[in-house]
Specification:
The chain is α/β, with parallel strands linked by helices. The protein contains 11 helices and 10 strands. The longest helix is centred in the last third of the chain and has 16 residues, at about 180-195. It starts with a strand and ends with a helix.
């Protein structure tokens, strides 16, 4: 059974006329059906306005369907009685870390989520320390959040999500505001969390990040254009162009070198070359 089931999901926002009346506006998502397995690492990509961030917010009930259903671990996001349980299972990390930090001291910020869950203080301390160590920020635990770099702040935001012990974390453009080194650090953390069993859903416009996942869902104009493994997608340049996306530099190199389609990163290239 899938951990997240999306069935005929449509989201249509309302717009306000000049006379103040509300009428149906554009459809941000239209008739989407997907399954996300527990423990998987999934990327959702697409151009700006494709609906990928709206889809992300539907997965933990921040946006409710206009039509259709989103079911998380057997619970429907339409059921208000289950929203708290859903959000405790599905954490979310947003693009701008400054919008997620609520406390002035690093460890206090990471503790904020567990405190709101009513966790015992001793358990909160254990979770905070463990989460900070997982993201490489334990030594900064007593520092003021305002003194951190953008990449460090994003790691604190991830630690805050991890400390709540969710089964799934949605990362909505988590590296968009970071430099290349910061992006690499955050992607390494996400990969490690997934290796530890957390279901990771990565919303990104960096195709070099999507190639590191197990599965890529391509969005276009509020619909799913395709749903493939990285090897399948990056061997179909026509589909990538149709979605308005670009090939990652490594994939361009692979194409020029005539390597197999399942060689999607440098590690796989080294393994391929060693086995030739």
């Amino acid at each position: 059974m899938s951990y997240i089931e999306i069935r005929n999901l449509t989201v249509q926002f309302m717009k306000i006329n000049e006379d103040g009346s509300e009428v149906p506006g554009r459809k941000a998502l239209e008739d989407i059906s997907l399954d996300i397995e527990k423990g998987s690492f999934v990327a959702v990509v697409g151009m700006n306005g494709s609906g990928k961030s709206t889809l992300a917010k539907c997965l933990n009930g921040l946006i409710l369907p206009t039509k259709g259903d989103v079911i998380v671990d057997g619970m429907n996001t339409r059921d208000e009685d289950h929203l708290w349980d859903i959000r405790s299972r599905v954490g979310m990390v947003f693009q701008n870390p400054d919008n997620q930090i609520v406390s002035s001291i690093v460890e206090d910020d990471v503790a904020f989520g567990p405190e709101n869950l009513g966790i015992e203080p001793a358990e909160i301390r254990r979770r905070v320390n463990q989460a900070l160590k997982q993201v490489g920020m334990y030594d900064q635990r007593l520092k003021g959040a305002h003194m951190l770099s953008g990449g460090q702040k994003q790691r604190i935001a991830i630690a805050g999500a991890v400390a709540m012990r969710p089964e799934c974390i949605i990362f909505d453009e988590p590296t968009a505001m970071l430099d290349p080194k910061g992006r690499e650090n955050v992607m390494n953390i996400i990969s490690e969390l997934n290796a530890d069993g957390i279901t990771a859903i990565l919303i990104t416009h960096f195709m070099s990040e999507a190639v590191e996942t197990d599965r890529i869902i391509v969005m276009n104009a509020g619909r799913v254009l395709c749903d493939r493994t990285p090897a399948q997608l990056f061997s179909d340049t026509e589909m990538i162009e149709r979605a308005g996306l670009e090939l990652p530099p490594f994939i361009e190199l692979r194409e020029k070198a005539g390597l197999p389609s399942d060689v999607t990163n440098l590690e796989k290239m080294a393994a391929y070359m060693n086995n030739r």
